Amino acid sequence: MIIKPRKLPEEIKKLRALTRRLPFHHPKMTLITEQLKRYEAGYNGEKSLDFPLSFLQSDMMVFHNLRLHDGKHYFQIDILLLTPNLAIILEVKNYTGTVTFDGLFHQVIRKKENMEEAFSDPLLQVRRQQYQLSNWLYHHLHISIDIESLVVMANDRSVIKSTSDHPSNINKIVKRDYLPYRIHELLEKHKDKPPLPLEVISQTLMTGHQDPVQNILHRYDIAHSELLSGVACPKCNILAMKRQYGKWYCPQCTFTSDTAHNQALSEYALLIASTISNREACTFLEVPSRFVVLRMLQNYESTGQGRNVKYVLKEE
Ligand SMILES: [Zn+2]
Predict the structure, then answer these.
(1) What is the DSSP letter of 1?
(2) How far is the CA of 258 from the centre of ligand 1 (A)?
(3) Residues at Cβ < 5 Å from ligand 1 ion
(4) Measured between alpha carbons, how far is residue 298 from residues 93, 112, 241, 288, 292 in Å?
(5) Which residue spans within the chain are E strands per DSSP?
(6) What residues contact 140, with CB distance under 8 A and at least 6 apart?
(7) In degrees, to the nearest 5, what angle opens at C-alpha 203 toward C-alphas 305 and 149?
(8) Burial, 249: exposed, middle or buried (Cβ in 10 Å; 0-12, 13-18, 19+)?
(9) Contact 124/184 with Cβ under 8 angstroms?
(10) How far is the CA of 232 from the centre of ligand 1 (A)?
């Protein structure tokens, strides 16, 4: 039973918008593209768990990307599984190549194409999440529920190794296809615990969830003025559509569109602000007529896309 479904994360939407709006040779383009790839790999890893998770008992509650505040810090759980006597935290990793869990120094070493790269240890991450969730539930509901955590390796083709120092790690790291069996083992282990009020816990978790609000330009120290303005062609992607005879026209591939500006307005909302004035929209869309822009903004709102950009007529 999926209580909180998975959505395309805001970070991915914002990074995608940023790669389209930064000049190709911008000094931060490589960093942004790498970050985007990393987020997309994580998201694809989570998506790939849909199939193994579909084998779980149907009354198990599933929460994707819960983000809670423990009083000091936010913590985000990729997937939380909840039964009346057990909560299971799943941290999903989509590493490629050969991955060695080094329990001695608490790091993960990924070897790929003769290059070694170190990552922070997801086992420490889930251990911290377990502690934070346990405190969170106690603080909000005065209950203590057994919590287990697993690091799920979502990539079929990755090779997993562990240094011999910490064989106990092996219980916590699981390949995607083995996940239903591992979960079943954990449920068996905890089945005699007294049942807790699942509905109440579920509602409290959903109320406690907070989506991240982050200005991506601040995060990467990029000025508004560094972004490219204009409307992109939906067909060939070039940021050069021209307004001709009441339509958008692409000088590169001759494609025409009535609504090409909607994507530009959504990108404005993701990158700059959730409100826009007529003058700002004229500049961003590179349309000189404020009457034409006014119609576009009204239409943008009426098509239901307005939840991304609110048209606000500011004093000018
Ligand atoms: Zn085009």
Answers:
(1) -
(2) 14
(3) 233, 235-236, 250, 252-253, 255
(4) 43, 51, 20, 17, 10
(5) 2-4, 61-69, 74-83, 86-93, 98-102, 107-112, 115-120, 147-153, 159-162, 173-175, 242-244, 247-249, 256-257, 275-276, 310-311
(6) 204, 208
(7) 100
(8) middle
(9) no
(10) 8
Smallest Cα–Cα separation from 64: which of 50, 74, 85? 50
C-alpha 77/C-alpha 249 separation (Å) is: 45
- C-alpha of residue 31 to centroid of ligand 1, in Å: 27
**pLDDT tens, residue order, the chain (316 aa):** 999 999 999 999 999 999 999 999 999 999 999 999 999 999 999 999 999 998 888 889 999 999 999 989 999 999 999 998 899 999 999 998 999 988 888 889 999 988 999 998 999 999 999 999 999 999 999 999 999 999 999 998 999 988 866 666 778 999 999 999 999 999 999 999 888 899 999 999 999 999 888 899 999 999 999 999 999 999 999 999 999 999 999 999 999 999 999 999 999 999 998 888 889 999 999 999 999 998 888 877 666 555 556 666 665 5
* Torsion angle (degrees, nearest 10) of CA 287, 289, 295, 298: 70
This prediction's pTM: 0.85
The domain ranges of the chain are: 2-208, 229-311
Query: In degrees rounded to 5, what are phi and psi of residue 197?
Result: -70, 95
Ligand 1 centre and the CA of 238: distance in Å?
6
Residue 194 in tokens: 């007294």
Beta-strand ranges (E) seen in 103-241 are 107-112, 115-120, 147-153, 159-162, 173-175
Neighbours of 92 (CB within 10 A): 23
Q: How far is the CA of 233 from the centre of ligand 1 (A)?
A: 5
